[in-house]
Amino acid sequence: MISGSSLRPTLRGLLCVLAVIALACGAVQAETPAVAWDLKQLMESMRRVKTARAAFVERRYLGIVSGPLESSGTLRYDAPDRLEKHTVLPAPEDLVLAGDELTITNEAKHQRRTLALQAYPTVWAFVESIRSTLAGDLPTLHRFYNVELDGDAARWRLVLKPRDASMQAAVSEIRIVGSGNRIATIEIIEPEGDRSVMTITAEGR
Amino acid sequence: MSWSSRGLIGGWIAFVLACIVIISRAEFSTDLSAFLPRSPTPAQQLLVDQLREGVVSRQILIGIEGGTTDALAEMSRRMAGKLRRDASFVAVNNGENVGLERDRDYLWHNRYLLSPAVDSEHFTAAALRRALEGDLQLLSSSAGILARKILPQDPSGELLRLLDQLEGQAKPAMRHGVWFSKDDKRALLVVQTRSAGYDIDAQQSALARIRAIFADVAAGAGAARLLVSGPAVFSVSTRETIKRDILRFAIIATTLVSALLLVLYRSARILGLALLPVASGALAGLAAVSLGFGSVHGITLGFGVTLIGEGVDYAIYLFTQLTPGTAAGNTLDRIWPALRLGVLTSVCGFSAMLLSGFPGLAQLGLFSIAGLIVAAAVTRWVLPALLRSGFSARAVTALAPKAAFLARRAPALRPALLLAIALATLFLLLRRGPSWDDDLARLSPIPVREQALDAQLRRDLGAPDVRYLVVISASEQEAALQASEDVGASLRRLAGAGLLEGFESPATYLPSHRTQRARQAALPSADRLRENLEQAQSGLPFRPGLFQPFLDDVSHAKGQALLGRVDLQGTNLATKVDALLVRRPAGWSAMLPLRGVADAAAIAGQMGAVPGAQAVLLDLKRDAGRLYQSYRREVLKYSLSGAAAIVVLLFASLRAGRRVFDVVAPLVAAVIVTSCALLLTGHGLSIFNLVGLLLVVAVGSNYSLFFDRRVDSGTDRERTIVSLMFANLSTVIGFGVLSFSNVPVLSAIGSTVGTGAVLSLVFSAILARPDDLAARSDGS
User: Fold this and answer.
1) How far is C-alpha A77 from the chain's CA centre?
2) pLDDT for B36
3) Residue ranges per domain, chain B?
4) Crossing angle of helices B231-265 and B448-460, rounded to 10°
5) CB < 8 Å to A64, chain B
6) CB pair distance less than 8 Å for B146 and A7
7) CA neighbor of B153 nearest in space, from A186, A139, A3, A189
8) Which of B140, B161, B547, B552 is the best mutation test for A, with the most CBs of A within 10 A?
9) pLDDT digits (tens, 9 = 90+) for B156-184
10) How far apart are CA B471 and CA B456, in angstroms?
């Protein structure tokens, strides 16, 4: 049995993915690591990124299916608020976050949906946290997540834990691993044990 | 006082009392549809009925403007929250995702009865295999998280299919999670009242609640303004307008006419006597309408004001013509033929209204006919009975010589008048006849400003501009739904061929029992489905036993009770179904609004070909325009017949072509110049202007008749001119006051007749033949 309330986490999950994509894209450009390196500097270096492209491979480990489900495609970020995820395999799909609207296009199925993020308060909060991250706005990021950073500039790991209870129902933890301002992987762990790992490589490599 | 007088007075009092009894039991309505044409097709009737009591009639559109989008969105949310807690409203929608859970629940629980994909091929091993392979792709897409949760119950994706169907529909623009106009100026809400549209008291209190809630929400938000529209607003404001107008205009007209009578006679007693025919006429008119139509429309009451101006004419003729030493009865014998003819011509004019296709106009016609006949009868028989023999009304005669002088000099203006008529005729000819205002909206009793606001809000809401509508008639709800499905199948084929983009149907949310049974029958047995699924699943990575909930749900759906309207209760889908599937006095109607129509003619042709379905394609824009034109033609026909009847009547009474010409010429001139003036002052002529022009002939003929009447002496002529002037003035007051009304039908008739009445008198004076007058005076 399912009800509407259990359908809504969908979008939250979706936006979690996007949030991480944002972080990932923002970090693709290389930069000389600072000496005394901390969270604040990580944010600052991300903020300097105005546009970025990357290729991704995502593996989902789901309880209902044995073995991972793999998808791949490209990512694109344009400051200050545009994110795109173009999946190529196994089936083409485009996600575009522009301003406060998320558009999902499936050319094969002739589907195009535009969602107003404000209609989903949790997602709205989530998107604000994406933007504040991209803007290097650490206080706002802290408002939505407990943020932990370990490692150093050469090899760091950011762990985001949602503070909001309804967010916690959708995502228990987001782990982002990277070096410099380049993100290598984003791992999203859900409360029931499902998880997905996205590996990001600069396009052309 | 003679016995016959006593008898007359007694009879009159009894009549007046009877009228009062009838009126006291009468129902008064402000039903907006009365001034819409009587609908010739069931489909049009359906729309009018929807306006009266359907879901549409309960809908109130709300706009909030004057602020930043942030502030407006916040107000929209707070207002919607309060409205949702208010018992006056059954549905409140501002774009927030409130109440959608129920819609989804309905779709989810009943997906196997609702999904158009369910047929005997849908759950074969091969079909399930394709579905499961698709699911694997879906799981790795953005929809994967949704798909993962519902997959064990719905591997064939019926819910997504049903949600997709809902997605395709037009929606307003969104800002900050609530509905906004495209230009971001207004936050938008749509509410549905608990009470029906015709319950105007309840609608009024619902509107008051909306205003109070807005005032509360907008407190401190300075420039924020509330806009409300919709049938409820129209009903309430029309009732208010009519109430206000009637009272104000009745007071103004009565005061002015009374003042006129006082100036003329300087006698309160005569004032009272002169108002008796009017009052009796008004009561008789209302009683006649109440008996004839079952209820009296508010606008009819408003129109009653004109009777004050006209009805008092008869008394003015009588009192002004009274001479000392002559019994009132004798005076009446003298003027009665002209007076009677005047009444008859007026009746001819109003008969055209009585016969017109507008129930509202017919009421006005009946009211005036009954009112004028009774006013004339009271003047003829009751007033003389009330007057002492030898009673003389000393009209102020100081004006008389001046008026007579003016009247004598008037013919000097003849060349100017002829020139004016020639120019006006030329003007009309150059415009290829009068340009008609074929905007159906002008017929509505709703002021143009309110109509414009309504149109604006509807555009903002992206409420589909429903132009094409397939209307299906059936005896039963089930038959209507079945026909909707058959027509829907045909429309889908046409959509495939590119003739239209899509359509909505009540059967989408509430399939017929026939279809639901067919879908149940197409669901395989539990064992069969298990086998098919096992076969389909082999080699795919799904966890064993994952789809047990799916097997359970299909098995349940196979035996579940069929869906009816009651199952939709509390969902937004119920609102949709109620709007598209309507119970009518003679059965049921289903409406299928079409989107993106490319070839209406081809679709219309196909609709007739759907077997067993009584379906017609309506083109609301074209049909409404045609409807209007056909009504205009009808009104024109009745108006011309009315005018012809008046001419015949004049021939019968005057028995001389030349005299008829003398009477008719000023009227024709007045009609030409009035039409010209109406066209020059702005818009085209509406049906109501047309009716007004006929009334110019009907009412104006009284003046030219009196000008034509043989006169005994110079003083008689002076008296005639003075009585005509005052009678005319009172008529102009009656109609002129109406021209200030906010109710379009009243202001159109008021301004037309007011202008035309003055012109007929002036033209009558100008076109009168002085030499003739002298000759007739000598001859008599």
Assistant:
1) 11
2) 61
3) 3-26+235-433+656-779
4) 170
5) 148, 151-152, 542-543, 546
6) yes
7) A3
8) B140
9) 889 888 887 776 555 677 777 788 888 88
10) 26
The values of phi and psi at residue B31, to 5°, are -55, 120
Report all structural domains of chain A as residue ranges with CATH numbers, in order of start: 4-202 (2.50.20.10)
pLDDT for B209 equals 93
Report pLDDT for B128.
Answer: 92
From CA B242, how far away is CA B255, in angstroms rounded?
A: 19
Rg over alpha carbons for chain B, rounded to the nearest Å, is: 35
Chain B residues within an 8 Å CB radius of A7: 104, 146, 149-150
The closest alpha carbon to B256, from B708, B721, B736, belongs to B736
Give one DSSP letter per residue of B359-407, joined into a string: HHHHHHHHHHHHHHHHHHHIIIIIHHHHSPTT-------SHHHHHHHHH
Measure CB to CB from residue B142 to each of A2, A4, A95 and give the nearest one: A95
Give the pLDDT of residue B481. Answer: 93
Helix (H) or strand (E) holding A73, with range, is strand A69-78
For the residues of A14-43, what is the DSSP string, one character each? HHHHHHHHHHHHHT-S--PPPSS--HHHHH
Instruction: Please give the distance of CA B571 from its chain centroid, rounded to a whole number.
Output: 31
* Over residues A135-155, mean pLDDT: 79
Q: Who contacts B4 (Cβ-Cβ below 8 Å, separation ≥6)? A: B385
- Residue A176 corresponds to which amino acid? I
pLDDT of residue B507: 92
From residue B258, how far is each of A205, B262, B278, B317 by CA, in Å? 99, 6, 12, 15
Tell me what pLDDT residue B562 has: 93
CA distance B561 to B570: 19
Residues of B near A (Cβ–Cβ under 8 Å) read 73, 95-97, 100-102, 104-105, 108, 136-137, 139-146, 148-153, 164, 167, 174-178, 541-543, 546
How far is B688 from B752, CA to CA, in rounded Å?
9
Cβ pair A64:B542 closer than 8 A: yes
User: For residues B494 and B496, what is the distance between their CA atoms, to the nearest angstrom?
Assistant: 5
Q: Please count the other Cβ atoms lying within 10 Å of the Cβ belonging to residue B604.
A: 16
Q: By CB neighbour count within 10 A (0-12 exposed, 13-18 middle, 19+ buried), where does B64 fall?
A: buried
| Mean of the per-residue pLDDT values of chain B | 81
Q: Is the Cβ pair B177, A119 closer than 8 Å? A: yes
Task: Kindly list the distances between the CA atom of residue A28 and the CA atoms of A102, A174, B312, in Å, as whole numbers in the listed order.
Answer: 23, 18, 93
DSSP B513-549: HHHHHHHHHHSPPHHHHHHHHHHHHTTS-BPTTTTHH
B476: burial class by Cβ within 10 Å (0-12, 13-18, 19+)?
A: exposed
For the segment A11-30, the average pLDDT, to the nearest whole number, is 46
Q: What is the CATH number of domain B3-26+235-433+656-779?
A: 1.20.1640.10
pLDDT in tens, B283-298: 999 999 999 888 888 7
**Chain A residues in contact with B496 (beta carbon < 8 A):** none
Distance CA(B78)–CA(B82), nearest Å, equals 6
Q: How high is the pLDDT of residue B53?
A: 57
Which residues, at least 6 apart from B107, have a Cβ–Cβ distance to it below 8 Å? B114, B159, B162, B163, B166
The pLDDT score that the predictor gives to residue B732 is 87
**The pair of three-digit structure tokens given for residue B37, joined into one six-digit string:** 């044409």
Does residue B113 have a pLDDT over 90?
A: yes
Q: Vertex B273, ends B267 and B278: CA angle to 5°?
A: 125
B577-632 pLDDT tens trace: 877 888 877 788 888 888 778 888 888 888 877 776 678 887 766 766 676 777 77
Pairwise CA distance, residues A132 & A140, whole Å: 6
ipTM of the complex: 0.73
Tell me, yes or no, if the pTM score tops 0.90: no
User: What is the arithmetic mean of pLDDT over B736-745?
Assistant: 82
Q: What pLDDT does B64 receive? A: 93
